[in-house]
Design goal:
By secondary structure, the protein is mainly beta. The protein is built from one helix and ten strands. The protein has one helix at residues 95-98; strands at residues 11-14, 25-30, 33-41, 46-50, 53-56, 59-61, 73-76, 81-85, 101-102, 106-113.
C-alpha cells in the first residue's frame, strides 16, 4: 500500500456492519492471510483500467490518492463481491491476482493510521 501505508504501520479498523465505499482501505482475508487493500469496484461495477486511467461503468474516475502505474485490465464485479487493489500496483498482490472477493472476506475498514 506504499506510499500511503508502510510495513510496520499500525492501523485501527472497524469491523462488522460497515458501509463500504469506493477507495476505502479495508482489511481482507484471502487464502488465510490478511491484506490491507483499497476498494476499487463495488458489486455490479464494470471496472476497467485503460492507459493508466480508471473507468467504472464506462465513466472516467479520478483516483483521489497517489498511486503507481496500473496495467490495462477489465473485470465485472459480481453481486456480493468487491474488487480491491493495492496502491503500490507494480508490486501488489491484489484483485488482479486473486480476482474479486466476497463481502464476507472483508474483516474491517481502516479508520486510523498511527
Amino acid at each position: 500500500m506504499k506510499p500511503n501505508l508502510h510495513n510496520n504501520d499500525i492501523v485501527l479498523y472497524k469491523k462488522n456492519n460497515i458501509k463500504l465505499n469506493y477507495f476505502d482501505i479495508v482489511i481482507v482475508k484471502v487464502d488465510n492471510k490478511l491484506y490491507v487493500k483499497r476498494i476499487i469496484g463495488l458489486p455490479g461495477d464494470k471496472v476497467e483500467f485503460n492507459k493508466n486511467k480508471l473507468f467504472i461503468d464506462n465513466k472516467k474516475i479520478k483516483e483521489p490518492f497517489e498511486r503507481n502505474f496500473t496495467d490495462d485490465f477489465s473485470v465485472t464485479v459480481e453481486n456480493n463481491k468487491i474488487l480491491v487493489l493495492g496502491d503500490n500496483r507494480p508490486y501488489s498482490y491484489d484483485g488482479r491476482n486473486f480476482g474479486t472477493i466476497s463481502l464476507n472476506q472483508v474483516k474491517g475498514k481502516m479508520i486510523l493510521k498511527i
